[in-house]
Amino acid sequence: MKKKMKVKGNHVIFSLVFLVLGYMMAFSYHLTQGESDKSAMTGKQWERDLELRNQLVELEEKNRALQKELNEKQENVLEIEKELSQEAQVYFNLAEDAEKYRMHLGKVKVKGEGVEVTLADGDYNPDEENINNYIVHEHHVFKVVNELYISGAAAVSINGQRLSHSSYVVCNGPVIEVDGYQHPAPFVITAIGDADVLSSALNLTGGVKDTLVDENIQFTLEKNDEIIMEPLLGT
């Protein structure tokens, strides 16, 4: 009886041992399989990361190339804008010159500050044998007109008649002719320009005013804040 109990006890022990070994082998296999799966997943993830990294590097290279191209195009635009700016300045200068020439030619209406110079015959002197010694002649008018143009006058008129680049003034007895139109004394010479400059130029010591006064011509000068001259008609 005792011998049977002993055998039976050994079977139980062996059974427990085999059970534990089986469990350990199953756990080990499961663990090994998990590690293998994990290793396989890690390899795929690494390949995916590498692919994404390569794509990022490629995109960065394309971005740098596009940025370089953009910089070059911006430089070209700046060069074009600079050329256009220079051309615009040239056209502006040409337009200014054209406007100035039109003013001198009397082709456009002109308005601005300026001066009015009046030349009148000197007082009658019965002791003076030659009447020409106290009346205004064309050379007196020329002195004033030339000084005004030299001092920067943009436009000049005589008794309201605008002068042009081809105008002429001649004496005809007691009157003068401006481009064929007769004007009696006194002669009002009007000029548009910097009033202070024009006035100072005419009033210089020993200048135009002093010369005319010495020749018995009555000389008066006034500054004017606004003078308007209409364009020449006809030719």
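That was protein one. Protein two is written in the same sequence-then-structure order:
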Amino acid sequence: MASDAQAGTIDPREAAHFGAQAADWWDPEGGSAMLHKLGPARLGYIREAIDRHWHGDSATLRPLAGKRALDIGCGAGLVAEPLARMGAAVTAIDAAPENIAVARAHADAMGLAIDYRACGVETLAEPRYDLITTLEVIEHVSDPALFLAAIARLLKPDGLLILSTPNRTPLSRLLIVSLAEGLGTIPRGTHDWSRFITPDEMETQLAAQGLQVVDRKGLLADPRYGFVLSDNLALNYILAITQIPA
């Protein structure tokens, strides 16, 4: 993303914060442990949304074969790699060049061809994507409206967008900011609670860009399983989104 906050969506402080954690991304017990715990629930939701949107067979190993996918705020590739394994031609972008370097090295070691780029979504000018994912990212950008406008421009008319983010509630302030960051489960300074977006606010912002929510689930912490999908959106939520029909 552009480094000029007035012209792009990158917050340089956020990019530096996450870039400093680059070497730790793939360690399930390290600073990105929470993302690893979120992984199964988020990826399960993505797969269900893919099958529902394209009327696919849940037993198919490569439901994205022949499709182009974009992962925004990819970190070191925790979502980009599964999308590639599902058959997509994946482009993955991140604000921190350090993250992209780690992501490329890991994908090479896994034998996965992923087009990693250190840039912002608003800088992309190329054919549209069938699937766009952006998970726990929008709360870190400098201009959410510009961010969503760029996504809307890049999403095919019949494409699917998956977005997840923390809700702005007393529960998220307590569990994510006070407890998780206070106890070091998440690196301190990762979140600014005031930048969290409620589901209703998100729907309004999406509608302004010609996008509509077609499915939503909450992501809740469960001591037995890590994180699970729920109808309770109070902590974190994940959305399936499409273009509003013309």
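Confidence is low (pLDDT under 50) at residues 1-6. Keep this in mind for the problem set.
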